[in-house]
């Protein structure tokens, strides 16, 4: 209504604004409103006439719906608390909850889905679900020539492609009964150790980041960028290098590479000490990793673990030393082990292994001889001098035949393994005498190491699963293949 508010003259107070169309009749200052009953008036009069110093009694009102619900809720809470405070030994009614960790969770390091059965914060069971990144690498290899398979191996552990290339090349060379030239072997080992540092740097920074410490990852990415620049200088690619070839490597080291890698070897050990100073005195990082996710030596061997995950449990096993390949028997290095078997021990093993990798690279630089970088076999290796392809008919035919049709491998089967950054990486190949493998099986260390989720102890809380998974360092492209 548009009427202006006024003061109701029928009310005992003239300060109550009312509508101009109020039905209250005219009344004097002392008269009651016609809308107030006698009982209400009596109650009001008695309250107003109470002697000074005495508290006025509050009117008794029925409880509202909200108050009734609140009372019932408090009673229910008290009942639950009473049940929880019963003496031990009496069974409590509990309900387990299924929680999906992944496949899009950042701490799963890829598309891994963990179905966790939780009893509160307690993890009663872990059920990994894999296959989200399955590309059929092993089946695709049956349709590719041996040279064409190298790009497929790049995409297994995409953090360390040179190691994958080397493992496959050694398996095929074993079938052919050949060895790469000594210079090529030194180049291969040097690149494999660069890849090892690159892979360890990633998890050295990613594990603290999973637990809330961002700084370590930023430092690790700084040094990893230096390695990516070195790989790009050698191969022309930062990630998928495809640099190895059956019988050697694709090309020789470029000019200016040796001073660059020596500079890296001088800088990097001091950077490793920075990581240790940053995290080894961090009480939060230590409390989240020490004594968490313990894997005993017996369990590690039974599960088929390898690499830093096994050596952190006290098992002194390294294929580079115990079953040497390439020129590792000419190099001096220490096999890093720990005895605790927890998340922190696995982190420490990787940090120390980076120091040993720097030593191995320096020895390769000092010992590397002159000579060819691939075997001189026109039926297997591409022409070493690419300029000959443009001016020599024989070189052009050789290059075309190897690119289009590949080379034949004698009938047989072989298994060859190397010490990759994640552990034992092996290739089992069956040849039927053609240019393509009849069957290829990849022994991926990440796939095997992921089984450790079933064997860890002292990691029974949800927050601990993040630390355990990060310390195992799985790469899902290698798991799913």
Automatic annotation (TrEMBL):
It is a peripheral membrane protein. GO terms for molecular function: NAD binding; NADH dehydrogenase (quinone) (non-electrogenic) activity; quinone binding. SUPFAM superfamilies: HydB/Nqo4-like. It catalyses: a quinone + NADH + 5 H(+)(in) = a quinol + NAD(+) + 4 H(+)(out). Residues 31-50 have a biased composition (Low complexity). Keywords: Cell inner membrane, Cell membrane, Membrane, NAD, Oxidoreductase, Quinone, Translocase, Transport, Ubiquinone. Pfam families: Complex1_49kDa. Residues 1-74 are annotated as: Disordered. Residues 210-481 form the NADH-quinone oxidoreductase subunit D domain. One of its GO terms (cellular component) is plasma membrane. Its EC number is 7.1.1.-. It is found in: Cell inner membrane; Cell membrane. HAMAP family: NDH1_NuoD. NDH-1 is composed of 14 different subunits. Subunits NuoB, C, D, E, F, and G constitute the peripheral sector of the complex. Belongs to the complex I 49 kDa subunit family. NDH-1 shuttles electrons from NADH, via FMN and iron-sulfur (Fe-S) centers, to quinones in the respiratory chain. The immediate electron acceptor for the enzyme in this species is believed to be ubiquinone. Couples the redox reaction to proton translocation (for every two electrons transferred, four hydrogen ions are translocated across the cytoplasmic membrane), and thus conserves the redox energy in a proton gradient. PANTHER family: NADH DEHYDROGENASE [UBIQUINONE] IRON-SULFUR PROTEIN 2, MITOCHONDRIAL (PTHR11993:SF10), NADH-UBIQUINONE OXIDOREDUCTASE 49 KDA SUBUNIT (PTHR11993). This is NADH-quinone oxidoreductase subunit D. It comes from Sinorhizobium fredii (strain HH103).
């Amino acid at each position: 209504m548009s009427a202006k508010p006024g003061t109701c003259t029928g009310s005992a107070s003239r300060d109550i604004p009312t509508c101009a169309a109020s039905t209250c009749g005219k009344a004097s200052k002392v008269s009651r409103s016609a809308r107030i009953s006698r009982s209400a008036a009596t109650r009001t009069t008695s309250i107003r006439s109470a002697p000074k110093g005495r508290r006025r009694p509050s009117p008794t009102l029925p409880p509202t719906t909200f108050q009734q619900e609140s009372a019932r809720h408090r009673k229910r809470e008290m009942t639950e608390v009473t049940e929880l405070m019963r003496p031990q030994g009496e069974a409590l009614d509990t309900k387990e909850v299924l929680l999906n960790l992944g496949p899009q969770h950042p701490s799963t390091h890829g598309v891994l889905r963990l179905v966790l059965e939780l009893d509160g914060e307690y993890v009663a069971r872990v059920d990994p679900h894999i296959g989200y990144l399955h590309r059929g690498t092993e089946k695709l290899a049956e349709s590719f020539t041996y040279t064409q398979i190298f790009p497929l191996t790049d995409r297994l552990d995409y953090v360390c492609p040179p190691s994958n290339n080397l493992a496959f090349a050694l398996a095929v060379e074993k079938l052919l009964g050949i060895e790469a030239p000594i210079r090529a072997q030194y180049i291969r080992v040097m690149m494999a150790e660069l890849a090892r540092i690159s892979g360890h740097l990633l998890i050295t920074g990613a594990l603290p980041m999973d637990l809330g410490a961002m700084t370590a990852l930023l430092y690790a990415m700084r040094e990893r960028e230096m390695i990516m620049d070195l790989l790009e200088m050698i191969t022309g690619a930062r990630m998928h290098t495809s640099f190895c070839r059956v019988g050697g490597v694709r090309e020789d080291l470029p000019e200016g590479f040796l001073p660059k890698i020596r500079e890296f070897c001088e800088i990097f050990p001091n950077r490793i000490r920075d990581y240790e100073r940053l995290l080894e005195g961090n009480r939060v990082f230590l409390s989240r990793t020490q004594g968490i996710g313990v894997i005993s030596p017996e369990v590690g061997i039974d599960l088929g673990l390898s690499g830093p995950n096994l050596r952190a449990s006290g098992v002194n096993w390294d294929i580079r030393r115990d079953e040497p390949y390439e020129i590792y028997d000419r190099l001096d290095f220490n096999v890093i082990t720990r005895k605790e078997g927890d998340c922190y021990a696995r982190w420490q093993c990787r940090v120390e292994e980076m120091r040993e990798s720097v030593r191995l690279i320096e020895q390769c630089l000092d010992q590397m001889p002159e000579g060819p970088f691939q075997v001189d076999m026109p039926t297997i290796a591409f022409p070493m001098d690419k300029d000959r392809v443009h001016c020599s008919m024989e070189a052009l035919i050789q290059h075309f035949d190897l690119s289009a049709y590949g080379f034949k491998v004698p009938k047989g089967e072989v298994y060859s393994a190397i010490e990759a950054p994640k552990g034992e990486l092996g290739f089992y190949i069956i040849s039927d005498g053609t240019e393509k493998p009849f069957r290829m099986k990849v022994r991926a260390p990440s796939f095997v190491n992921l089984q450790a989720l079933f064997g860890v102890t002292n990691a029974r809380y949800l927050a601990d699963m993040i630390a355990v998974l990060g310390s195992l360092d799985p790469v899902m492209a290698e798991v799913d293949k």
